[in-house]
Structure formats: C-alpha cells, structure tokens
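Why do we care about 3D structure at all? Because function follows from shape, and shape follows, mostly, from sequence. That is the central idea of this module. The next example makes it concrete: a single protein chain, its amino acid sequence, and then its structure expressed as tokens.
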Amino acid sequence: MRDIIRIAGANNGITDDELREIVDEVLGEAGKQPLKKILLLPPDFTRMHSGAGKITAMIYSKLKDSVQVDIMPALGTHDPMTREQVEVFFEGMVPYEEVLVHNWREDVVKIGEVPASYVAEVSEGLINDPLPVEINKRLLDTSYDLILSIGQVVPHEVVGMANYTKNILVGCGGKDTINRSHILGAVFGMERIMGKDHSPVRKVFDYAQEHFLNSLPLVYILTVTTASHDNVRIEGVFAGNSRQVFEAAVELSREKNLIWLDEPIKKAVVYLDPREFKSTWLGNKAIYRTRMAMADGGELIILAPGVRKFGEDDGIDRLIRKYGYKGRENTLKKYNENADLRENPSAAAHLIHGSSDGRFTITYAVKHLTREEVEGVGFRYTPYEEAERKYKPEGITDGYVEYGGERYFYISNPALGLWAVKGK
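And the structure:
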C-alpha cells in the first residue's frame, strides 16, 4: 500500500475527525479486497499516552458489525490488561472479553533466525550468537486478511526508537527474541542507542522484517505524541508497510520528544502515573530517559505511588530482588557466573539499564514497597507522602521548579521524552 503521513498543524494536534479520516484511508488502502477477518495489535496500558487506544477503538467500532475484529495488545513481558485498563485505554468502545492475551513464554513459534555473523557485524563483535525470531502464533493464521500493528514512536532504551517492528518482535515476540535483543542493546550501550534509528537492535529487527515478516498481511499505523498531564496531543500519524513511514515518524519524534538542556541536571524529580507504572520494570523509564541529562553526583527522585513490585513477570521479579540494580560491570559478572540470570538475558539488560553505575543517586518514593525491599535492590528509599509534600506542589509543570528552598527539574511523564545535554 502507499504511505499515508499526516502531521498536525502548528497549534493543534490531529483531531478525532481527522483521525477517523486517516483510519478510513488506511482501511481503504490496506483492504482492497473485502475484509472478513482482521487482527489489531495495539500497545498495552503502559503506552496510555500513545493515541493507539483511540485508533484501535475507532477501527473496532467501524468494522465490528461486518468484520471479525480480533484485538491482541502487544504485551511483551508485561501483565495482561485489567478490565479497568481496557475500559480507559480503548475509551469504553472495546469489551474486555474481546481482548486477547499474548503470552511471551508459551504462545509463540519460531519463524527464523538472524545469523550470528550478522549480529556480530551490527554489534561490533560484542555479541556473536544468532538471534531466534519468535512471534505469536496468531500472526501466522492465514485466515486474517489484514494485521494492523498500531503504536507510538518515541525514544527507547533497547532499540533506540520504539515501535514499528518492535511491536511485533518484542510486543508479540517470544522469550528468546526478547531476551537476546535486550542484552544486545544493553551490552552495546544505552547512550549509543537512545533516540537513534539505526541501532544494532533495530538492524536485527530490520533483518527479521525483510526475511521473515514481509509475507504477512502486515500494515503499521504509527503515532508521535506529546502530552501535558492527561492532555494527549497526536502530533503525527504514519501508516503503511514500508520502512519510510517509520523513518518519517522517527524524524518527528526526535523533534517533539527529545528535550535538549543547556546544562546537566543536578536534581531531578520524576513522577510516575500510578495507572501506568506499577513496577520498576516500567518505572525505571525515569532513569533511562534522564540519565544523559543527569549531572555527575546528581540526585534523581522518583515519585512512584503505584509501584508495588519490581518485575512485571514473577520470575523476573525474583531475579531483580536477588541481583539488584548494582551497575553494568557487576551485572555482567553475575550474568556470566549464574545460570538463572543467563537464562533471562532481558532481566540482566534491565538491571544494567536501571543503574546509574554510581554516577548519580536514585531514590524511589513509594507507598507499596518497604524500605528493605527498595534498598535491597540498590535504590534509596523515602516514603511517598513525604516526598509528595516536598516535591509535588499544586499546579507544578515540567521544567525547573523553585519550591521549598530547593531548585529541581520536574518531569511529569518520562515515557514521552528523552532528556539530554546539548553537545553530549
């Protein structure tokens, strides 16, 4: 199909009416033959501000009376969506019973393998193993006339820029694909990846698209968004099955979602919406997305009223509690010495991502975890209510804040940006 690209005007986001026109155009282009059965692959609630829930709801509402519409959120390793999350994310338009669950450990089939020689080439020799390509078996169901992958392009710690093939290979992927892609990104280095298109992980995903996914009736609908509190603005929509739509979205996301600062941040306060962030597996975006802006010896305080565990998956939660966020070198040492960590490379990658390597301090302000639990994994602890009174005054907005005799940089949602210092 031809590429469809719509970018919002200077002062307004893309309206719901414009979004419906785009959906009609995409379905008209993608469904030249009458559609009988389609599969929608939106993100889950952890991408609450992506606009993808609204787009999915529009497609479902338009087609449900004439087409079988299956919806399977691209969960990756995350928990299945709750009834309440489905209601909010899909704006009350999609029944909870209609939402399928992807199981990254059991519901997948291997469709190919990225050769070790190619992985070694793109990783500069850091990883010399092949990368299995596993996806949910439902995507191989030939009764689907169309598969629509819907999601947000935004800076990302593993792949550089989220979405496009990541939604398939990680969001709907299997254990080995997720594990090995995550350790590839971690070993190569977050600072070399975040906010960039052609990372080693992206190159591996491009290989998989070209060699194993092109035969699927797969079309991408990508968004770029900004948000102020819960007011989400869709800055652009990019649809098609060519890499060019992703590249156009990357260009807009780099413009809208990369925040360049004149000097390093000495003290940062990051708020995690309790509806979206219930684990450090997700909440550590507060670390990933600010680390390039944090000053040496700086302080990062994470206001996390909804965080109640470490891993989204029980097995990974146990590994985080066992090994902790103790730095890159320590994690790699433990990875080489311990079979349980080697069997879960994505957990090792996450432990690397979630540490500042001692360069700045990280304090979690929580309600549902104890001091012993938080300090046991390597973070500092403070009670949430105390930190909220001190750092989240009424009406606070993003940017530098002078309050209570202190100056700090406030971020209301780390999932929507990447903060870095100019020239670094």
